[in-house]
Inverse folding.
């Protein structure tokens, strides 16, 4: 199935990648990997790559998603003598896709790149929508650009290379897409166990929602903001604990917290019922458990939201649920109310 | 006169800047300066800036146009808490415009920026066309993006703040625009002294040529390549001597060399006559004198062209003159011929 001309979701990465490589005369093909995707994913595509392809390997992890790693990538691209008709294949999760896409989009003012996401999170979220960038001064994706990839090649085969915790993290975005845009799908999946799914079907549905939203509002002037549901406080929680190695959360684990507290805000503002909130809380606690957030961390977390890209003039704008399966955006929320929402979570 | 809706050329920067600032509700206005434009140019616009505007100051010079300076700019932008509706005014020459535009285009995936060029070079060249970026590993503008500014405000008043050598450097691009696109204008100006000009008129004419070309081919697929006349070997000469403080050339001085040697290539390939070449040589030597290029430097200079963004697969493509006032592009030139052209220059 093709849901957008450049997004190819199939169980045959050899075929979709071969077609991409034959679609134009690229002067050089380079694969960006980390030590994990080099070991587990690269062998799954190596057979169809041109024999003279190049490989650039960076260290894995969100904590490596910064300008110093970009400098390493740009340096290796330069040393390989890449010209403007080279193609970069980003083989990995969101970090590889966001950072590799940013490096490609800025090398000689832009060469083409394709995303080959290997995590559920990057398949349903990061690989689609054209948001690229790296973290800066502790702020997520603070330096970056909007640029669509030449192609996104999704194959659930890579999910078999993934630890369970990573699969669960990506599933948070699947749940989010249903919560903000498809009540029927939410009801279908909310009580299911993630071992039960046909991932090809789940991914197609979830990417379809993301594509519909981002195609209608590529640069986040309006509608696209609903994708930020769970992310304002979720990102703040993620960023805060990123600097504390023992407490580090995966992206999905952090936005699961965000969806509960922002669900509480939606109920507080009268958008959803207490029953709706209970359903949301039950679903996320069942899958993700509860994160311990000490009281002394709350102010740093709240303060973090003030630097979020979504805000203007120090007013923090949230995307909230209007009902189960429908979201709004530009909802101003005070620091006091944020504090209350986090206290609610702490009291669960 | 308005030659494109976002380019405003006038002798009244107070009015054009006031109109820009009133055109939208910017949450914050920041001015990027270096120590020279802070001292000589900033006082000329300060009166019309909002009282709470911010100033970011970087060190002047092409040798400061790199990612470390971007990091300084991004850090100050972050510390000022700039949101996505902030506006950056780049007050300076090409370095400030290219680097400030790149930083704005990548901060939170892009805020708006306006160019207020203060050098002749940046007025007629760098401020128009959307090419932004910084140098990397010794290669000019190696990391960057294509992005049009919200506005370009040009006022010749800033030229009074400029050393003669800088004015002469910018004039090389004026001569280039005529040589590649307007034989009548070339004949008008080729023998004149730069002290005689009505700059408002010269700038309008020159920017008009650049805009016509870049509007018709914004991402350099074809026509735009003619702007590279004089720049393939000119850039190589500029980059090579950039690392040798005593021999450093201004951009226009380097491309004046480039226009002579690439003029020789055009004559060698039979495009222009020996009389045409003599006319070009006389004009550039009269204005810029002759640069001493020792034989031992030639190979490093030629090697530099191989990393140029214009090339594919190690074949060096030149923009050459088809006749006086008309240029072509994608002319493959061998290293041997480049060496001969530089030897011709050395023998003048």
């Amino acid at each position: 199935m093709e849901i957008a001309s450049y997004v190819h979701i199939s169980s045959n990465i050899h075929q979709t990648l071969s077609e991409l490589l034959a679609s134009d005369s690229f002067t050089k093909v380079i694969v960006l990997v980390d030590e994990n995707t080099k070991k587990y994913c690269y062998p799954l595509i190596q057979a169809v790559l041109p024999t003279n392809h190049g490989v650039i390997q960076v260290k894995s992890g969100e904590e490596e998603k910064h300008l110093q790693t970009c400098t390493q990538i740009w340096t290796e691209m330069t040393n390989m003598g890449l010209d403007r008709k080279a193609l970069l294949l980003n083989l990995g999760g969101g970090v590889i896709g966001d950072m590799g896409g940013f490096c490609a989009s800025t090398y000689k003012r832009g060469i083409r790149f394709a995303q080959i996401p290997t995590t559920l999170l990057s398949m349903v979220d990061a690989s689609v929508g054209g948001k690229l960038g790296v973290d800066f001064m502790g702020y997520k994706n603070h330096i970056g650009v909007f640029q669509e990839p030449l192609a996104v090649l999704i194959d659930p085969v890579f999910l078999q290379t993934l630890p369970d915790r990573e699969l669960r993290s990506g599933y948070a975005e699947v749940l989010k897409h249903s919560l903000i845009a498809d009540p029927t799908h939410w009801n279908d999946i909310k009580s299911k166990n993630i071992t039960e799914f046909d991932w090809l079907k789940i991914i197609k549905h979830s990417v379809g929602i993301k594509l519909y939203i981002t195609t209608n509002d590529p640069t986040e002037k309006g509608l696209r903001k609903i994708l930020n549901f769970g992310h304002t406080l979720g990102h703040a929680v993620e960023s805060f604990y990123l600097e504390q190695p023992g407490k580090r959360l995966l992206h999905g684990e952090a936005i699961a917290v965000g969806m509960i507290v922002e669900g509480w805000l939606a109920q507080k503002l009268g958008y959803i019922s207490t029953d709706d909130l209970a359903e949301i809380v039950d679903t996320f606690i069942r899958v993700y458990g509860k994160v311990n957030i000490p009281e002394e961390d709350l102010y740093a977390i709240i303060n973090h939201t003030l630097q979020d890209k979504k805000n203007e003039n120090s007013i923090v704008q949230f995307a909230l649920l209007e009902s189960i399966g429908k979201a709004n955006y530009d909802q101003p929320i005070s620091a006091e109310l944020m504090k209350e929402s986090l206290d609610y979570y702490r009291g669960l």
Q: What stands out?
A: The interface with chain A takes residues 27, 67, 71, 74-75, 78, 81, 83-85, 105-110, 131-133, 136-137, 139, 141-146, 306-307, 309, 311-314 of chain B (CB under 8 Å).
